[in-house]
Amino acid sequence: MNHLKVERDGRVVTVRLHRPHVLNALSGELLTELLGVLRPLDADPETGCFVVTGSEKVFAAGADIKEMAGKSAVDMMAEDYFAPWEKFADLRTPKIAAVNGPALGGGCELAMMCDLVVAGESAVFGQPEIRLGVIPGIGGTQRLTRLIGRAKALDLILTGRTMDAREAGSCGLVSRVVPDDRVLPEALDAAATIAAYGRPAVRAARECVDMALETGLRDGIRFERRVFHALFATADQREGMTAFLEKRPPRFDGS
Ligand code: HXC
Fold it and tell me: Which residues span the membrane (predicted)?
C-alpha cells in the first residue's frame, strides 16, 4: 500500500491517509487502496469500527487537483469520476473521522461520509471548489446541506470560505471538538466503545439515522419501528436485556 497506513487493535481498524507531499490529496489510487482494505474488513464479523485519520497537520486537502485538472467532461462521465466514493459511504461498519488541520473539499466530504467526526481545535473545514471553477463533487452539496442547512452550506460553498472547528461543532458538522493532541485518543476511545456493542444493533442504528436524511418522518418512524422489531430476533437483544435484569455487564457476540 502506497497511500495508507493501516493498524488493527482488536475490533477497531485505523486507516491513516498518507500522501504527505500533497497534503493527503485524495487520488483515485488512494481510493482504490482504501476500498481494497475496508471492504473485506466490513464483511468481517471481527471488525467493530473504523477510524479514518490524516496526519497531525492535515486531514485531507481535497480531491487530487493534479489528477483531474486535464480531464475532459467526456472523461469524467465515462469514468463516472468520484462514483466509487459512495462505496466508502456505504460501508456498514461505523466510521469515525479523526480530523487535525484542514479537511477541505473532498477531505470535508470524506469526513461527512463518516458517522462521527472528532475534530481538533485547529481543524478547518470547507468546500473551496468554487475557487477552482467547479463545485463539490463527492456529495458536498447534498451532505453539507442536510447536515448544516441551506443557509450555512451556501455560505461555505459559494464563498469558498473555511470554518474553524468551533463553528463546525456548533453547526452540526462535527460531533466532538477536543484539544489537538486528544483527537486520535478520543476517536479510538469512541471506536472501542462502539465496537464492543452488538453488531446488529450498531448497524441498525446507523441505517435508521441515515434514513432520517433520506425520507419523510412518517416513513422513517415506521422503518425504525420495524428495524427495532427485527432486533428481537437477535441473541444480542436477549443478552443485553437479560444482563441488565441480572445486573451484570452484557457479553454481545454479534448474533
Ligand atoms: C493536489 C495538492 C492539493 C490537492 C495541496 N496540494 N492540495 N495537490 N490536490 N487538493 C499540494 C500543493 O500543490 C503543494 O504541492 C503541496 O500539496 C503543499 O500545498 P501548499 O498549497 O503549498 O500548502 P499550504 O500553503 O500550506 O496550503 C494548504 C492548503 C492549500 C490551504 C490546504 O494546499 C489548498 O488550498 N489546497 C487545495 C484545497 C482545495 O481546493 N481542495 C478542493 C479540491 S477539489 P507542491 O508540489 O507545490 O509542493 C475537491 C472536490 C472536487 O476536493 C470536486 C470537483 C469535481
Answer: none
79 is catalytic: no
Distance CA 147, CA 172 (A): 6
Q: What's at 167, amino acid-wise?
A: E
Instruction: Check pocket membership of 35 for ligand 1, CB cut-off 6 A.
Output: no
Per this entry, what is the length of the chain? 255
Ligand 1 lined by 137 (C-beta under 6 Å)? yes
Model confidence over 5-49: pLDDT tens digits?
A: 999 999 999 999 999 999 999 999 999 999 999 999 999 999 999
In this chain, the answer to whether the domains covering 4-195 and 199-245 adopt an identical fold is: no
What spacing in Å lies between the alpha carbon of 78 and ligand 1's midpoint?
25
Taking the C-alpha atoms of residue 162 and residue 252, their distance in angstroms, rounded to an integer, is 42
129 a catalytic residue: yes
Output phi, psi for 131, to 5 deg.
-70, -20
- Quote the pLDDT of residue 223: 98
Atom of ligand 1 nearest to the CA of 135: 54
User: Could you tell me the residue ranges of all domains in the chain?
Assistant: 4-195, 199-245
Task: Report whether CATH 1.10.12.10 matches the domain 199-245.
Answer: yes
Tell me the CATH number for domain 4-195.
Answer: 3.90.226.10
126 lines ligand 1 (CB under 6 A): no
Convert the pLDDT of each residue in 220-241 to its tens digit: 999 999 999 999 999 999 999 9
